[in-house]
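ingest -> fold -> write
write: protein_1
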Amino acid sequence: MFSSVDVSLEAGRCVNVKIKTADDLGKLELGKLDQEYIKDPDLRELLDSTALDAKKMESLEDQKLRLVYSVIYSEKFVLKGKREHEVYISVVGIICR
């Protein structure tokens, strides 16, 4: 995950201020993954023996069909890798009369 902010401020011709920040939080990954298949024997049998009705499927002809037969889930997200924080400040002032 990376984020950055750039801010610039000018006060007439006399003062110019620039502030830049950058944060690299590392990679966001899923932690503690589990996978669960549909274990109910009646539901498995129903899914195995069900034929798709061609007429009902015509309107979905160009679409992808996805059947869910297992679920993968994660309990939490984990940040991994090197974390960095960077701040750059520039102030330029000219004596104006």
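write: protein_2
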Amino acid sequence: MESCIQETRNGFEMAVDEVERLYSENVKGVQEETVRKEMKAWAISNGMVTTAEYKDIVSAYAKARGWTQEGFTGMEVYDPFWDWQED
């Protein structure tokens, strides 16, 4: 039999976990840091560091890496139901 304090504490921990899930924050990871460093080196080698704005450097780097897609805005809705459908 659990004590009332232990029961309340578990409930509190569950509430804290739920709040952290709902109000999550961005966390810098290894991949983000690696891409940022590679992009900086690429911008220096292409002479863009002193002449271009950051957003232009990001766009040019993504295009050079082949990360852009024609006609893709990033606001498209993905519905896995239609993946198996054929015309």
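write: annotation protein_2
Residues 27-64 form one domain.
The chain has a mean pLDDT of 77.
pipeline exit 0
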